[in-house]
User: Fold these one by one.
Assistant:
Number 1:
Amino acid sequence: MRQTYKNIILIGFMGVGKGSVARVLARKMGVFAIDGDDLIESFANKKIKKIFEDDGEVEFRKIEKNLAKFLEKSVNGAVISTGGGFYKVKNLNKIGTVIYLKSNFDKIIERIKAAPNADKKLAKRPLLSDLSKAKALHKERDEAYAKKADLIINVENKTPQQVAAKIIKLLNRKHLKG
């Protein structure tokens, strides 16, 4: 029987705010926030962009798969923000409760461009260099994210604090239902 609360895993498209929401949510819950991309960079000792350039996507996905195994076996009671493609790992739902942070593509781009370090945020996401391709990828992934999710939260026009409060409310309701 699956535990009601092992970890909370935030999935969604790049730039949707998974890391920001994870930090606020973890603080409100008194647990640690773990950034999957940070762990991958630490493991590979290079930035994700560099992993893709030097080793290719196949190698990156292998590291991601190993990270998923590690999270399932070794992490309990954390809020985990993931990279945009992490939803594809086979054991995702064994790691914890999966929450899809949903937003339309244009709102994501608006959010990134409004950030004080917008240029840096765009530069670290090579897939956003071609917005028409990125928009097609967003459309393709939207349905897949929804299928993997235990909960879906629309984050458009909401602060990370509002999203975190909504997640806590929904998790409490889900917990009470059993």
Note: The CA atoms of residues 102 and 171 lie 17 Å apart.
Number 2:
Amino acid sequence: MWINPVDNFSNDPQGVYEERWATPVVAIAALVVGGFALGIGAVLSSTDAAGTFLVGLAAVGMWVIAALAAAQRPRLAITRDGSLTMKRLGGIRTFSRADIVRVKIVRYPRLGRRVPMLELDIRPPGEDDDRLIIFGRWDLGTDPRDVFDALNTRGLVPPNS
């Protein structure tokens, strides 16, 4: 079950964001708990060295994914001044309406079905090439079509999209 990521701006003490999207805290907590369960399983399967290593590696992998998801909250946000903010591992990037070249929903095949993904083409200030950024349900914590509608409502979707 996915939870609406707009959780009363608890991660936004200054009230900078008008709306934001991120991986749900419940999903991050589930990864941490799952990592602990796998870690306990690795300790209890000490008779099989290869199995212990693989299960321990899976536990560490779950913790890494949880840490990356927690560090990038909120993943995408609309600020009060109408610009678009993206949080990545390299830091926070803010783009104005003029920097957004295209926004659209594309359906990609995943696990035997086609799932919607939010594609943004952004031309950062001072650069000649566009950057393609793709967000899925995991990144946004909600259906990408809902995020597209919110961006469109606030005028962040260029008319040629």
Note: The helical segments are 25-44, 49-71, 137-140, 144-153.
Number 3:
Amino acid sequence: MTVFARRARASAGRMHPELSLVSYTLLGHLEESDGCRATDLAAHYALDKSTVSRQVTALQRAGLVERRLDPGDHRVQLLHLTPAGQEILAQVTRRRRAAFRRRLGDWPEEDLTRFAGYLERYNAAASGPVAPN
């Protein structure tokens, strides 16, 4: 798992020099949710608010994210992808998918199905509490 995580972090930098794995993940969530609050991002990914704040600030400076007033509550600011953020996310997603196709392209269908099932099971278990060492 450590090698998998290390590769994911390293590949994020190769996909786009301005995007860390965390940045890419946050951009993806903003796209999926069509915008949300920074506190929602922190809660969803179990990250510290200060970590999310630093990431969001960097994404804003890069012109990838913007803040907009929540139409339902003008006291709240929602984070949204800018057109530049949408384009970079799309580019990185295309590159990641191509990399997965290269890596998994010669796997038999049975292995892919089993691998996908294991990933789904792993991700479902990850939503529960983490046991101490």
Note: The CA atoms of residues 28 and 89 lie 7 Å apart.
Number 4:
Amino acid sequence: MEARIRIVRLSGDSPHVATLAEWTHDAWGHLHPGRSLETAIALLREECGPAGVPSVFAALDGDTPVGTASLVADDMSDRRDLTPWLASVFVLPEWRGRGIASWLVQRVEDEARAQGHGHFYLYTPDQQPLYRRLGWRDQEERDYRGEAVTIMRRDLVTPGADADQSISR
């Protein structure tokens, strides 16, 4: 992890919200047919909570965003029984391979743990190896809005309770 990268919580009035919403809309907008970029920006602003669920985090190089991840109550419209969710983990292509996604995931895990959640979920079509390496386990294979995805679960442990499941920074 590069020393100059820092992870920050975003507020709804952050100047970075529109940029992050554009990235995630470009990457996953096909899962939400008919959702405009303007709607995606408004929804992301609503997810910028002060703590817990929802929260949005950005990886910044100085004051320039290079990645994002969120903690949300609902990320899969037909699995509202599962909550909360790690969502919208995205790192700019030129910044990948430097541990930024892992660091963002760890920050969201820390947030979920601090709010008393014992576990949380994500879904991914293609990043299962990354998440397995970070301690996530497959829960369900399924089709979601025309895309084959894996729902994964991460059981959170109290710091110090199981050192093997923690990630060093």
Note: The chain is about 25% helix and 30% strand.
